[in-house]
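Weekly modeling sync, notes
Attendees: S.R. (lead), two postdocs, one rotation student

Agenda item 3: backlog of single-chain predictions. S.R. asked that every request posted to the team notebook include the full sequence so nobody has to chase files. The rotation student volunteered to paste the first one in as an example of the format we agreed on. Action items at the bottom.

Example entry:
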Amino acid sequence: MLCAKDYASSNTNPFCFSCTVNMPYTNHFKTKPNSASYKFRARVPCVDVACMLNFYSYSDVKLMLHRLKYKGRKDIGFQLGLMAGQRAKASPFFDAIDLIVPIPIHKSKLIKRGYNQAAFIAKGVGERMNIPVREDVIIKHTNTKSQTKMNRIERVKNVGSSFQLVDKLGIHGRHILLVDDVLTTGATMEACANHLLESRDVRLSILCMCLARN
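Predicted structure, as returned to the notebook:
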């Protein structure tokens, strides 16, 4: 939860009504282009791009993401996915998505953390949009350094060759929705997207829960 109050709606929803209503939502599901899509302009050919929330370092969203990634709160990821999936479903964009692919994490991080937070987000999105989720399309074969304090150039160098497409034939001609928790510079998404585009006639859309702001 964002507020540490008792559950207000149901014991399956980690957010109370007030937190849900007052989250710092973007207008990305209604506006194209937007502040998220600009990050991929002339870099990755995307059909649609959106982030659901604005993420400021001083906001409660930071606490929410910390709980999701490091405190075992997989329910937060799934609920955010449901919320984002509902908005994408009601949007004039994000049409004809064939499958959802979460950004993978390296196996050592998966063992340490116990789960991939992006996968739980993707499952929520997939459930709401009735679209299958695949975690076996692309892998992260290199355990890269933390990118928290890196600039865009450093991030691109850090993740550029860390992904590997393992099912090139299985995604031919598909419209893939690539999902992650936070969009900062876009370097990780770009690196992953470029590998997916190695498959013939693939179209890409991008959905992140949060857009990092200053």
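Discussion: group reviewed the output briefly. Residues 56 and 203 are 31 Å apart (CA to CA).
Action items: rotation student to repeat for the remaining queue; S.R. to check formatting next week.
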